[in-house]
């Protein structure tokens, strides 16, 4: 264990760190959790129960990560895309369906574009260029690539349905995808892929999946600013801070075949979805949780007497995430059955299912309340920025600061 | 406790694993073989973690196949196969 830790933090292969340092920027990438497909970027096919500092060889700093079932997509600040982890369905976009890829590899077919957004689903991937083009690759057997067929592909292919439209965002779930368009005030949210659980909104009876994008009904005239998909859940956030949810019902609740607004008096600024729970972050920096009665993610819905009749999601109550002692939350993230957040003082906290070490606490225990994750010896407030990302059973953190820039407290 | 109840039609046949599979939240796949189903087994396990799902299927769909393959005489009338 110690030997490995030394190896992982050895400076021998830290060309990216050196390049970043030369640019006056300090950046650290950490990962932990399920790793048997190489998704942790450690160069090994093994789980990690404690955070590992990575030496990823990337040409520039990472602006965004997308973590899927067992693969990771990194977006560089220069608009380039790199991916690693499981590639058996072509989800890495490398042009061949390989079992797995242990280190970041460029998605070369997208190099003519400046990519501005990426999303990783269970076994498919989506990429959006700054010019509004959408590309997808990976498993297409439920139509989740949006190409009008059930083919899988190992190189990103442009979704021709949106050729004359400007795509702003893509969100990939287990077997479906959501797309947010820019500019169009109505019908700005589209979906494709599996729709059996209502994840594409209202569909004609007995339709199990659709491989061509269709507008999600029920969100007309609402200005949606972001879309989220995970498992068989779908959600959208409006410019007014309202949350709309549809798809598979949270534990004890029935499936929702049309977007329903969550009742909350608070203005929401971020949504994170797991496979059986959801997190939302309020404008005021409060984290709330919904659903999830397994693995200690949230207390017992059974005790509420909801097991016999299954109300829809509008009856769900958002509960405050416990154990934060009034600390403000900056960012939330959800894996399939675990949760993570970053506090205002740049602390990383995790809770939920821990069997693969995805909580980074050095054990495989589950935790009901957020626990502090220890990331090296630097004080958390040394960092100006800390971002957290969860895949199904694993977690990534990116921390950065500009060493020559103004102090963060200014 | 079973993680989920999943209908067989929502599982995918994986030729490499020779099993019906469904995504496990750990990143691996829940798996159940045709032989398991023929024997009436309804639990699909994940080889990487402690979780399992309950598979919902019509036992007769697989008992038929068992009748054809098994050396024991099937109770049902043999069906002619082209
Ligand atoms: Zn598993």
Show the helix and strand layout.
The complex is a heterodimer of chains A (410) and B (82).
Chain A: H1 2-9, H2 15-22, E1 25-33, E2 48-53, E3 62-67, E4 71-76, E5 81-86, E6 100-106, E7 115-120, E8 124-129, E9 134-138, E10 153-158, E11 167-172, E12 176-181, E13 189-194, E14 209-215, E15 224-230, E16 233-238, E17 243-247, E18 256-261, E19 268-273, E20 277-282, E21 287-291, E22 319-320, E23 329-334, E24 338-343, E25 348-352, E26 367-373, E27 385-390, E28 394-402
Antiparallel strand pairs in A: 1-2, 1-28, 3-4, 4-5, 5-6, 7-8, 8-9, 9-10, 11-12, 12-13, 13-14, 15-16, 16-17, 17-18, 19-20, 20-21, 21-22, 23-24, 24-25, 25-26, 27-28
Chain B: E1 5-7, E2 12-14, E3 19-23, E4 29-32, H1 34-38, E5 43-45, E6 52-56, H2 59-69
Parallel strand pairs in B: 1-6
Antiparallel strand pairs in B: 2-3, 3-4, 5-6
Bound molecules: zinc ion.
How would you summarize what this structure contains?
The complex is a heterodimer of chains A (410) and B (82). Chain A has 2 helices and 28 strands.
* Average pLDDT, all residues of chain A: 88
Q: Structural class, from helix and strand content of chain B?
A: alpha+beta
**Helix content class of chain B:** 10-25%
Largest interface, chains and sizes: A-B, 23 and 12 residues
Largest sheet of chain A: 4 strands, antiparallel
Beta-strand percentage range of chain A: 35-45%
Secondary-structure element string of chain A: HHEEEEEEEEEEEEEEEEEEEEEEEEEEEE
Describe this entry's structure for a reader.
The complex is a heterodimer of chains A (410) and B (82). By secondary structure, chain A is mostly beta strands. Helix content of chain A is 4%, strand content 41%. Chain A has a four-stranded antiparallel sheet. Mean pLDDT of chain A is 88; it is low at 1-21, 294-308 and 405-410. Chain B has two helices and six strands. Chain B is globular. Classes of the chains: A mainly beta (410), B alpha+beta (82). The interface between A and B is medium-sized, with 23 and 12 residues. Zinc ion binds next to loops of chain B.
